[in-house]
Write a structure and sequence with these properties.
The protein is an all-alpha fold. It is built from one helix and no strands. Helix content is 97%, strand content 0%.
Length: 63
């Protein structure tokens, strides 16, 4: 009976650790995706600024 309880406790602790480990890995992946999203937004803002600057320069040369 003692070996059954010990093995049950070991399996339960293993499952808890596995769940914790997966949760941390998913949280890390989520943070990486958020960072990539922010990088893309920044790149879009830079490109929009460049396009606006180019349009302003064209207007100045046409006048």
């Amino acid at each position: 009976m003692d070996i059954y309880i010990a093995s049950t406790i070991i399996v339960a602790l293993s499952l808890l650790y596995y769940g914790y480990d997966k949760k941390k890995s998913y949280e890390l992946k989520e943070k990486e995706l958020e960072l990539e999203h922010k990088k893309l937004e920044l790149e879009i803002m830079k490109l929009n600024k460049d396009v606006q600057t180019n349009n302003d320069e064209r207007k100045d040369t046409q006048d």
